[in-house]
Amino acid sequence: MNPGYLYMLLSLTSFGMIGIFAKLADTRGCRPSAVYTLAYAWSMLFSALFVVLFRGGSFAVPGIVYAIALPFGVASAIGGIVFMLGIRYGKISTSWLIINLSAAIPAIGSVLFYREPVNPRKIVVLLLAVASMLLLWKDKQDDERLQAAAQTGESR
Predict the structure, then answer these.
(1) What per-residue confidence (pLDDT) applies to 96?
(2) Do the Cβ atoms of 78 and 71 come closer than 8 Å?
(3) Close Cβ partners of 74 (under 8 Å, ≥ 6 residues apart)
(4) Pairwise CA distance, residues 26 & 96, whole Å
(5) Could you tell me which residue, 154 or 79, shows the higher pLDDT?
(6) What pLDDT, in 10s, does the model give residues 78-115?
(7) Helix crossing, 32-55 with 63-86: angle to 10°?
(8) Phi-psi region of 8 (alpha: psi -120 to 50; beta: other; left: phi over 0)
(9) Distance (Å, whole) CA 25 – CA 103
(10) What is the pLDDT of residue 42?
(11) What is the dihedral of CA 151, 94, 120, 11, to 10 degrees?
(12) Residue 111 burial (10 A CB sphere; 0-12, 13-18, 19+)
């Protein structure tokens, strides 16, 4: 088996679990900023242990890595906190779908910045991502209308 498949499955499982843990924290009334601060602290500890155990403790990295890691970490922390704040106002299934549809952003970026070739299949996939976002927005509007109608009917 190609190790790339193992990495892909582990990544899929790990990132998928983030949504479950975020919703669990929300149902327990945890503050998103506290959850993500502790999550990143544990992540840093785990990463350091990983480097010590599997890389011999070599933390020597080129300076460019620090320049990339800083905005990467900031975007990740903001994204996580905002995601957890957002699930309070909607369904976890819808919120997680939107996170997954955000894959269109790096796809577009790779075409624009790295000149990745575009074929008809990629264009269709990106258009379907846009269509999915529009359908999710429409679904949210319909849910809000039904809830408003139910509340109006209950108050009479």
Answers:
(1) 72
(2) no
(3) none
(4) 14
(5) 79
(6) 988 888 888 887 777 777 777 777 777 888 888 889 88
(7) 140
(8) alpha
(9) 25
(10) 93
(11) 180
(12) middle
Residue 37's alpha-carbon distances to 44, 73, 80, 118, 141, in angstroms, are 11, 12, 10, 39, 33
pLDDT tens for each residue of 55-82: 777 777 788 988 999 999 999 889 888 8
95 residue type, one letter: S
Question: What is the distance between the alpha carbons of residues 33 and 5, in angstroms, rounded to a whole number?
Answer: 33
pLDDT beyond 60 at 125 = yes
Q: Which helix (H) or strand (E) holds 107?
A: helix 104-114
Angle between helices 92-101 and 3-27 (to 10 degrees): 140
Give 95: exposed, middle or buried? Use CB within 10 Å, 0-12, 13-18, 19+: buried
Q: What is the pLDDT of residue 41?
A: 93
What does the block give as tokens for 127?
A: 């258009």
The token pair that represents 97 in the structure block: 């779908």
How far apart are the C-alpha atoms of 109 and 111, rounded to whole Å?
Answer: 5
- Mean pLDDT of all residues belonging to the chain: 84
